[in-house]
Amino acid sequence: MTTAAPIIARAYLRASTDEQDATRARADLERFAAERGILVVGWYVENESGAKLDRPELFRLLADSKAGDVLLLEQVDRLSRLTSGDWSKLRAELDARCILVVALDLPTSWVLAAPADEFTCRMFAAVNSMMLDVLAAVARKDYEDRRRRQAQGIAAAKAEGRFKGRAENTVRNDGIAAMLKAGASWSSIQAATGAGRATIAKIAKRDRQAP
Question: CATH no. for residue 128?
């Protein structure tokens, strides 16, 4: 008796800022995959805004994937808080590569991560496609609402003389600077500090410009 080949997945973990833990949902994704016999062959982690289409780890995941592979994530908003135009571009890339999106907060997608007959697969693929678009639109609206409230709060704080901006994490950043001077790779610095590449690049540039 031939054993069916496991479904191949690549997991995407994202947080918006360096202060947030992008790997927070890894245990939940590991549990989900184990329960369904899904083979996760790669973990792609980055600290970038979901409102940006330019995300190196996401596109590395897409480049590594083969037709029929699963892009596994915790929530649809980890994949997209994009504008309608940028979401359409990302959807086109996913469709062209025949990559299936499975999210823990999208139960209609779970069928795509399990063996099923052709009719069931096509039906749920159609439903899932629609729900992906809906949740991506909801995620974008949530992003815009939070940005608007944040801007209103900052404006009010400035008017009252209370706004000071976000304090720099000087202890962590001094550590990054020291590791850069010691010749550590950016990947090892990310692993040790949890900082995003944008933060490391900023500190490296600042140190180069220092007298």
Answer: 3.40.50.1390
Decide: 8 and 70 in contact? Cβ < 8 Å. Answer: yes
In a domain, 156, yes or no: no
Spatial CB neighbours of 29, under 8 Å, sequence gap ≥ 6: 11, 13, 40, 72, 73, 74, 104
Structure tokens that stand for 10 in this block: 């690549």
**Is residue 140 a contact partner of residue 83, using CB atoms and an 8 Å limit?**
yes
* pLDDT score for 142: 86
Look up the pTM and report it: 0.69
Catalytic hit among 16, 65, 80, 109 = 16
Distances in Å between the Cα of 210 and the Cα atoms of 61, 76, 177, 207 are: 36, 42, 12, 5
The stretches in the chain having pLDDT less than 70 are: 1-4, 115-121, 123-124, 163-167, 211
Which pLDDT score, from 0 to 100, does residue 211 have?
60
Q: Which domain holds residue 184?
A: 170-209
16 is catalytic: yes
CA–chain centroid gap for 15, Å, is 6
Is 94 found in the same domain as 27? yes
Same domain (yes/no): 130, 185: no
